[in-house]
Amino acid sequence: MNYEEKIQNSETHVFKVVFPNITNHHNTMFGGTVMEMMDEVAFMTATRFARKSFVTVSCDRIDFKKPIPADTLVELIGRVKYVGNSSLKVNVEVYVEQMYDDIRERAVSGDFTLVAIGADKKPIKIFEREEIANQL
C-alpha cells in the first residue's frame, strides 16, 4: 500500500448522539466534550495510519461555527493532513445532523498534532527510510 492509500484508508468516521447529559444550560454540547471527542478521533486516525502508539501534543485553532444542540447526531471525520518524522497532524471536522430531518452542517473543525512514541514513552519515527522508499 502506498503513502496516499494509507492516508485515504486511515480516514476515520465516528457517529455520536448528543444526549442531554453532555449539554450545557443552553441545551448545546459542552465545548470541552466536543474537543475530547475530536482528540479521540485524531488519535484513532493517527493509529490507523501508522499502526504506532501516539500521544496528542497540541491542537491548533479549533473553530466552533455552529452550536450542537441536544437530540442531534454528530459525525466526526479525521483525516491525516501532514506527516513528519515522529509527528503527524490530523484535521478533525464535526458535522451536526438533525435526527428527523435532512439537515447537516459543519459545526466544528480543528487540527491535532500527535507524536508516535515507543515503549519508553519517547518519540519514535513514524516510518523508517526503507518503508518510505518502498512506497515511492
Automatic annotation (TrEMBL):
It comes from the Bacteria. Transmembrane segments: none annotated. Residues 8-120 form the HotDog ACOT-type domain. Keywords: Hydrolase. SUPFAM superfamilies: Thioesterase/thiol ester dehydrase-isomerase. Belongs to the acyl coenzyme A hydrolase family. This is Acyl-CoA thioesterase. It comes from Kaistella gelatinilytica.
